[in-house]
Specification:
The structure holds two protein chains of two kinds. By secondary structure, chain A is α/β, with parallel strands linked by helices. Chain A is built from twelve helices and ten strands. Chain A folds into two domains: 241 residues, Rossmann fold; 32 residues, no CATH class. Chain A is 43% helix and 19% strand. Chain A has a six-stranded mixed β-sheet, with helices on both faces. A two-stranded antiparallel sheet of chain A has the order 1-2. In chain A, a hairpin with a 6-residue loop joins β8 and β9. In chain A, α9 runs parallel beside α10. The longest helix of chain A is centred in the C-terminal third of the chain and has 25 residues. Chain A is elongated and about 70 Å long. The N and C termini of chain A lie far apart (51 Å). An eight-stranded mixed β-sheet of chain B has the order 17-16-18-20-25-24-23-22, covered by helices on one side. A five-stranded mixed β-sheet of chain B has the order 6-5-4-7-8. A five-stranded antiparallel β-sheet of chain B has the order 12-11-14-15-26, with no helix packed on it. In chain B, α3 runs antiparallel to α9. The chains are: A alpha/beta, B alpha/beta. The interface between A and B is medium-sized, with 38 and 26 residues. β8 of chain A pairs parallel with β2 of chain B, so a sheet runs across the interface.
Chain lengths: 305, 518
């Protein structure tokens, strides 16, 4: 009767909206409960930021761009180079989060798809950063970056995540923020498959003295498979397809391969001096389950502090 | 181009679709997106399995094997090509092929062309080489064992010998120098070029053995375009002739012939050569050789039961004429010729004894002599074609009384009854010499001499070495006829079934190898 049970098992809806109303409520609750969170900072945030930036220790220059205040321009540097540079103070850099989000096609794998978990984790981390920190640098998989400030930018964050490109170019994702001189904390949400693809980017971050934490939304398929019989496997990244006859022996061999993959992922991050955290994804994606799964994640809370 | 002897069997070919259908892998009941496809493949590899794919190559190889087997079953073959499939090569090996007309002999060119032609034949064409040499057609000659041209002319009709009994599926290729009439059919390859030549075209020996007189006559021909003066010389080793004559000078107009005779006397016998100066295109017709028999040394014995001196006188005259001796009649083992008159002798003793008997009865051992025949008639007749009697006049022969009956090849009849016969190496007369007038006739000494010569025919034979060519062979002035190429050969139907079966087997082996390949 196994086939009957398999037939009754409903696959996850790939078109399920990533941020349903229930999740948005959860998101607001998480922001509200965030330690030392500030409410109604839509107007106070920029004022506090300005104060902090002016009172910080000079840490260097960055290219003057849209959104920067004119008084941050280093006119001495302009006199020397005829180019506009904004002064960066150390305190400002410490209070930002650079969030790297991988939404490549490989995220479509899994039941439910890992992509939903990645988006919701990114939304949670981004929302906490907007509520607690001075700025959030959201970097998409194709290297495009977006800087958001204040909790009022939460909707913009969700919209940007929902429209994120389906790409994952690790080097391109880290080069732009490094050129911009973004400091602070770095958070990289991805499936890190294959591990070797992110190794150069992690090494680049380390050379620039950045601190990065890898977040791997862990789904059930990351530990093994319960498939049996003749199954067609398709790689969403490359489109490659293979038909295999799965039995117990092959399940065990596949589980061993996944274990080796996890070891390789850990080795890549350990080699760069960073941490990789695997966050289990609730199987049913219910908002309550997300709350339950999210609450004990001290790492995120500590990170937000 | 391939045709099938049983094309209906090709209807089995559509069954190859079953192979493709049976090779279909099981259909997956579910398709799963996975980011771990490389891990799946590694797990398969560790489990020594492969992804389920349609085995295109294996199926294709099996289909190829099936189709090849079906094709072999249908009897594939290459259709036959009409045309001859055998080649009869006729090589003219006459002496004129040895003529050197510049750039090597025609024979060398012929051999090279033959080797090249045979090497260029299709593999299925069977060729047989036949050589016309010394009046004979030598069949099945290996192409590399042609040897050298003969020292004589062709001696036969080249066209008739080449075309004769030519099978229908056999092509003819004649290789010649074109001096003899060439076949009107088949391929033709002519070698050589026009050239000047002086030749001995006739040779005759008139030997008067046991007398020493010999006459050698030759005929010299001038096969050139201008007048030539040539010295014909006769040569012999010392002791062969009493004296060697001086060369005879001939002045020959273009195309003219002239006879030259040498009258010599034999000294010891041996080889005699009549030769031209040489130096022309063809050396084979520049000399002719013969071996003269040595002069006789007869030991003549006389055995007579009467005291009549006629027989002894005749024996002495023969001995003196030929330089021989008279030996004792009782020691006949040393005698080389015996003259007998009267009496009776055992027939077995005369089986191989040379001699001449008159009125001697030949009896078998223990038998009485046959009674003498009836008296002879007056009319005498003789065989004028017999070499012993040719040119002799026996019309005056009279036989008064017959003394014995004779048996053998009759030479002379008297009244219709044989009175002189030849038997073995001896000549027997049925009458005593004294009972006839034979010893008075002028033909008697010649008859004695001829009987002696007939008794020693092997010794008296003149051996003429072969080498005298036909005048057509020696005349090299004409250009050879144009060549005719070899025809297009046919080919038998070639059965391709084994090759198709081999292809099927190869496809199956490749399929097994591919299945077991890692």
């Amino acid at each position: 009767m196994g086939w009957l049970r398999r037939a009754r098992k409903q696959p996850a809806d790939p078109h399920e909206p990533p941020f349903p109303p229930a999740f948005r409520r959860l998101l607001l609750e998480a922001v509200r409960r965030a330690p030392r969170a500030t409410y109604g900072v839509d107007c106070a945030g920029p004022a506090r930021q300005r104060t902090a930036s002016r009172s910080g220790t000079f840490a260097g220059h960055r290219s003057y761009g849209r959104g920067d205040e004119v008084r941050d321009v280093d006119w001495h540097a302009y006199a020397r180079t005829r180019a506009l540079f904004a002064k960066v103070v150390e305190e400002e850099e410490r209070r930002t989060l650079t969030l790297l989000v991988d939404l490549s096609p490989s995220q479509d794998a899994g039941t439910p798809p890992r992509r939903l978990a990645t988006l919701r984790f990114a939304a949670l981390y981004g929302a906490l950063a907007l509520a607690r920190l001075d700025a959030l640098h959201l970097v998409h998989g194709d290297g495009r970056a977006l800087t958001l400030r204040g909790a009022a930018s939460l909707e913009a964050l969700l919209q940007s995540l929902a429209a994120a490109p389906r790409a994952h170019a690790p080097l391109a994702m880290v080069q732009r923020p490094l050129e911009e001189g973004w400091a602070g904390r770095w958070l990289w949400i991805s499936d890190f498959v294959p591990p070797d693809a992110v190794a150069p980017a992690l090494a680049l971050l380390r050379r620039h003295g950045r601190r990065c934490v890898g977040i791997l939304p862990e789904i059930a398929d990351d530990r093994g498979t319960d498939l049996l019989g003749v199954v067609a496997l398709r790689d969403p990244e490359s489109g490659a397809r293979a038909v295999v006859r799965v039995d117990r022996d092959l399940q065990r061999a596949f589980a061993d391969e996944l274990a080796a993959l996890r070891r390789a992922q850990d080795a890549v991050f350990r080699g760069a001096g960073f941490a990789l955290q695997r966050v289990p994804v609730p199987a049913d994606f219910a908002p309550a389950s997300w709350a339950f799964a999210w609450a004990p994640r001290r790492s995120a809370v500590e990170f937000a502090r | 181009m391939i045709e099938f002897s049983h094309p209906a069997r090709l209807l089995l070919a559509p069954a190859v679709a079953l192979i493709f259908l049976l090779a279909l892998p099981p259909r997956p009941h579910r398709e799963v997106l996975t980011a771990y496809l490389p891990q799946w493949l590694h797990a398969l590899l560790r489990s020594r399995r492969r992804p389920l794919r349609y085995p295109w190559l294996r199926t294709l190889l099996a289909a190829v094997a099936f189709l090849a087997a079906v094709a072999a079953f249908a009897g594939p073959r290459v259709p036959p090509v009409p045309g001859p499939q055998r080649l009869r090569v006729v090589v003219d090996a006459s002496a004129s092929l040895a003529a050197d007309t510049g750039g090597g002999s025609a024979w060398s060119a012929l051999r090279a062309a033959l080797a090249g032609g045979l090497a260029g034949l299709p593999a299925h064409v069977r060729a047989s080489v036949e050589v016309l040499r010394c009046d004979r057609l030598v069949r099945a000659v290996a192409p590399d064992a042609l040897g050298e041209p003969a020292h004589t002319g062709l001696g036969m009709d080249l066209a008739r010998a080449a075309v004769g009994a030519l099978p229908e599926d056999t092509a003819l290729w004649t290789l010649t120098d074109g001096r003899a009439p060439v076949p009107a059919v088949g391929a033709l390859a002519c070698f050589g070029a026009p050239a000047d030549n002086l030749a001995l075209v006739a040779f005759a020996v008139h030997d008067a053995w046991p007398l020493p007189d010999v006459e050698l006559s030759v005929e010299v021909a001038n096969f050139t375009a201008r007048e030539r003066v040539v010295d014909v010389r006769l040569a012999a080793a010392p002791g062969v002739l009493a004296s060697v004559p001086e060369p005879v000078r001939c002045k020959l107009a273009p195309g003219a012939r002239e006879a030259v005779a040498f009258a010599v006397r034999r000294a010891g016998g041996g080889e005699v050569v009549v030769a031209l100066p040489g130096g022309d295109a063809l050396a084979a017709d520049d000399e002719v050789r013969c071996v003269l028999p040595p002069p006789p040394a007869p030991r003549i014995a006389v055995l007579s039961d009467s005291d009549a001196p006629v027989l002894r006188v005749a024996a002495r005259a023969l001995a003196e004429e030929t330089g021989g001796d008279l030996v004792s009649a009782t020691d006949d083992a040393r005698a080389s010729f015996v003259l007998v008159e009267g009496g009776a002798q055992p027939a077995a003793a005369w089986a191989d004894l040379p001699g001449l008997t008159f009125g001697t009865a030949l009896v078998a051992a223990g038998e009485a002599p046959a009674p003498p025949p009836s008296p002879a008639g007056a009319h005498v007749e003789w065989d004028r074609t017999e070499p012993l009697l040719r040119g002799l006049d026996l019309s005056e022969l009279r036989v008064a009384r017959l003394s014995s009956a004779v048996e053998g090849r009759p030479l002379v009849w008297n009244g219709g009854q044989p009175v002189v016969v030849a038997r073995g190496r001896a000549v027997h007369c049925a009458f005593r010499l004294a009972d006839s007038n034979l010893w008075l006739l002028p033909a008697f000494p010649q008859l004695l001499r001829r009987c002696y010569r007939a008794a020693h025919a092997e010794t008296a034979r003149v051996v003429v070495a072969p080498g005298l060519l036909d005048p057509e062979e020696s005349d090299l002035r004409a250009a050879p006829p144009p060549d005719r190429p070899l025809p297009a050969f046919g080919a038998p139907p070639k059965d391709l079934s084994p090759w198709f079966l081999l292809a099927a087997l190869g496809a199956l082996l490749a399929r097994v190898w591919w299945t077991r390949a890692p």
